[in-house]
Structure formats: structure tokens, C-alpha cells
Design brief:
Length: 314
């Protein structure tokens, strides 16, 4: 019990790292000027970008801090703290764009945060430890592959905030799958001392797919939208598979189940509102002027619309 306060502090620091990582990597991806689709060559080029690498370091550090926090503190207290990354990302994004933090701007963020926080508290307080079935790894991989295929198709057929939303959710599905597979690997190792190679391959594949989806989402929308997708969808997928595939909520009563579904709906509604708002208000990403200061973008736009630019050289 005496480790609860240090665990909360570590989780809060981890949330700060996540928000900073999103801001830095998003800035690096948008500065690459590749439009809404991040090419493989540009993705490899980001490995030489100091901002992107610093963001990666913050991401790794935040993950380590959160893992330690969960290990030393109660999940029901620690897990909701990670949702602070969504609020911090929204604040950083507003400061970067020069917008004021009005209640209207923060309402979707707070909606997603509140819904996710209550959902995690309810789920953590009604979860038991049971032995997963032998087919759990295969089932988790098949379900996730189907979801990722649909989300990938939606991302390919859309643009702007909707593309960012689809690919951000895909990243959340991938990271939620990683949590489930790690749980299954741990269970099997404790039971028989063996490690499931299919689960390990699934973890590696999910890391690669999730990382790719997140970088593509950065190219299409603001960082706080991506963070919203990750902080909401990741726990929803992990808890959902824990309930449906691992049977960890067999003792949950119908009233609690209804409350959990309602909180999940509220959290997803908040993320959807963020996506719709930013799809309407944000400028198209990419292009040579995407990383330029405001006054330079204004001058470039004036030059592009000037009648003088339509003249052809003799």
C-alpha cells in the first residue's frame, strides 16, 4: 500500500513521456512533407531525424515507467493515470498551434478521458485470474487481423481526420493485442515453463504493424487524436479480449457489464468528436509549407492565388 503514491507518480511521468513523444514524432513526420501517406523511404529517413529519435526515446521511457508503475501499484489506481497523456497532448497541440484552451476544445478530450477512466476502474475491480484456453492465441490473432484489415481499408479510402482516426484505432488494436499476448505468454510460462512461439511472433508483428499505423496516423492528423485512439482503444481491446477470450470477467454482474459498455461508448464518442472536429478545422498535411511558420504559409497562399502566378514564361 505504501507503494501506491510512487506508482501514481511514475504513471504520471510516463503519461508526460507519451504526450511529448507524440508531439515530437508528429512534428518530425509532418516536416517530412510526404502528405497523408508516409512512404517507406521517408519512414527510414526519420531514423536520422533527431526529433523523431527523441520522441522514440520518450516513448520507450514512458513504457518502462508505466510498466514499473503497474508492477508496484494497484492496477485500478495506476491504469487510469495513463489517460493523462491525452489531456497533455491536447494542451501541447494547442500551444503549438497558438489556439486557446476553451471548454469547447477540451470537451471531447475530457469526455474520452472520463469514459476511459471509469471503464478501466470498473473492469479492474471485476476481473479475476483464470487459465486461458489453448486456442486463445490463435483466436486473438485472427480477431485482431480482421479488425486491422477493416481499419486499414478504411484508412486507405479516407483522408484527413477520418484517416487519422482509422489508423490510430488500428495502432490501438495492435498495442492491445500485444498486452493480451504478453499475458498469455506469461500464463503459459508459469504453468509449463514453455514459451509459445506463435505468441512471440504475434508480439513482434503487432509491434511493427502498430508502429507503422501510428506513424501514418501522425501524417494525417494532430498528435492528440492519435494519443486519444491509443489511450482509449488499447485498454478496450485488451479488456475486451480478456473478457471474451480469457474469461477474466466471468463473475461480473449484468449491471456492471452494462456500465462498462456505457463507459466504453462514451470514450469512443469522445475520440470520434475529436476526429470530426479536427477533420473540419485542420489544414491538409504534408506539402512544402506544412512545417513553415504561419506568416510564411500566408505569404505562400497569397502567392499561389495571385493572378501573376498564372502567367506563362515566353
Amino acid at each position: 500500500m505504501e507503494l501506491t503514491v510512487p506508482a501514481v507518480v511514475l504513471a504520471a511521468l510516463g503519461a508526460c513521456c507519451y504526450a511529448g513523444a507524440a508531439r515530437l514524432q508528429h512534428s518530425a513526420v509532418r516536416a517530412a512533407g510526404t502528405g497523408e501517406t508516409l512512404k517507406m523511404a521517408s519512414l527510414l529517413g526519420l531514423l536520422r531525424d533527431r526529433r523523431w529519435l527523441l520522441g522514440l526515446s520518450l516513448l520507450v521511457g514512458g513504457t518502462a515507467l508505466h510498466a514499473v508503475a503497474v508492477a508496484i501499484g494497484p492496477l485500478i489506481v495506476v491504469q487510469p493515470v495513463g489517460v493523462l497523456a491525452l489531456v497533455l497532448a491536447a494542451v501541447l497541440d494547442a500551444r503549438q498551434s497558438g489556439e486557446s484552451l476553451t471548454l469547447q476544445r477540451l470537451a471531447p478530450v475530457l469526455t474520452a478521458t472520463l469514459g476511459m477512466g471509469v471503464f478501466v476502474v470498473l473492469a479492474a475491480g471485476n476481473t479475476g485470474s483464470v487459465l486461458a484456453p489453448l486456442t486463445a492465441v490463435t483466436d486473438a490473432l485472427l480477431i485482431s487481423a480482421g479488425l486491422l484489415a477493416v481499419l486499414g481499408l478504411l484508412g486507405a479510402l479516407s483522408s484527413g481526420g477520418r484517416r487519422c482516426l482509422a489508423l490510430g484505432v488500428a495502432g490501438g488494436v495492435s498495442y492491445g493485442l500485444i498486452s493480451v499476448l504478453i499475458r498469455l505468454v506469461s500464463q503459459r510460462f508459469q504453468l509449463s515453463g514453455e514459451v509459445d512461439p506463435l505468441a512471440l511472433l504475434g508480439i513482434v508483428a503487432a509491434l511493427l504493424v502498430g508502429g507503422w499505423c501510428v506513424q501514418q496516423a501522425y501524417a494525417s492528423g494532430p498528435p492528440h487524436m492519435v494519443v486519444a485512439c491509443l489511450t482509449v482503444v488499447d485498454p478496450l481491446v485488451a479488456v475486451g479480449m480478456g473478457v471474451g477470450l480469457l474469461g477474466e470477467a466471468a463473475g461480473t454482474g449484468p449491471a456492471i457489464a452494462v456500465l462498462e459498455l456505457a463507459c466504453a461508448a462514451v470514450a469512443l464518442a469522445g475520440v470520434t468528436l475529436i476526429a470530426l472536429r479536427d477533420n473540419k478545422n485542420s489544414a491538409p498535411p504534408g506539402g512544402p509549407d506544412s512545417g513553415a511558420p504561419d506568416h510564411e504559409r500566408v505569404l505562400a497562399a497569397a502567392h499561389a492565388t495571385s493572378p501573376l502566378t498564372d502567367r506563362t514564361e515566353p
